[in-house]
């Protein structure tokens, strides 16, 4: 979602300066209040007393597997289908890992992790290398040379904009928020009201 929005922005405003990097969600509550960044975009909501968190769309977790894997023939994959498969899973102490563990508990399924990861790109690289299957967010899975299937169990994710409660996002950050939200609208997945969030941050 972010990369296409940046491309759109830079094409319309080539002089706009954007410094984009990725980080762990556990580090985000420190980066925004310290002004190391003006804006964070998270895959799931975070909580911090000094942060404003504005949900902007709905997403879901997907199963990613080698294209020739037998399960790729299914339109949807159940967690129970994965219990005998070698899995590359998020660590249990980060939000995605916690969500997957909770879903497995509800489905009475135990998955076997051959490698624990902290980032989706790590998991996807290992799937491409033939090590196993993974469950990642649908945005990370886009464009990868593997089979991507929705899960029978709905693992919903709510991406958010995160910025300081004490100072409004600067103009460049607001423009990026608008561009990302516009893409969410194009997909019919938007939630909340970006304009209302922008007004609240300036009041």
UniProtKB/TrEMBL annotation:
Residues in LysR substrate-binding domain copies: 2-178
Protein's UniProt name: LysR substrate-binding domain-containing protein
Domain of life: Bacteria
SUPFAM superfamilies cross-referenced by the UniProt entry: Periplasmic binding protein-like II (SSF53850)
């Amino acid at each position: 979602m972010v990369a296409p929005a940046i491309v759109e922005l830079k094409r319309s405003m080539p002089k706009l300066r954007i410094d984009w990097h990725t980080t762990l969600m556990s580090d985000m509550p420190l980066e925004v209040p310290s002004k190391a960044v003006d804006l964070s975009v998270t895959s799931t909501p975070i909580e911090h007393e000094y942060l404003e968190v504005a949900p902007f769309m709905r997403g879901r977790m997907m199963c990613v597997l080698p294209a020739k894997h037998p399960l790729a023939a299914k339109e949807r994959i159940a967690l129970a289908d994965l219990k005998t498969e070698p899995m590359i899973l998020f660590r249990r102490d980060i939000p995605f890992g916690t969500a997957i563990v909770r879903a497995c508990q509800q489905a009475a399924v135990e998955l076997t992790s051959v490698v624990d990861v902290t980032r989706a790109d790590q998991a996807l690289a290992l799937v491409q290398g033939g090590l196993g299957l993974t469950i990642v967010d649908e945005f990370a899975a886009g464009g990868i040379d593997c089979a991507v299937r929705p899960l029978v169990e709905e693992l919903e994710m709510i991406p958010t904009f995160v910025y300081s409660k004490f100072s409004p996002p600067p103009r460049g950050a607001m423009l990026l928020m608008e561009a990302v939200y516009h893409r969410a609208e194009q997909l019919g997945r938007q939630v909340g009201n970006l304009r209302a969030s922008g007004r609240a941050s300036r009041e």
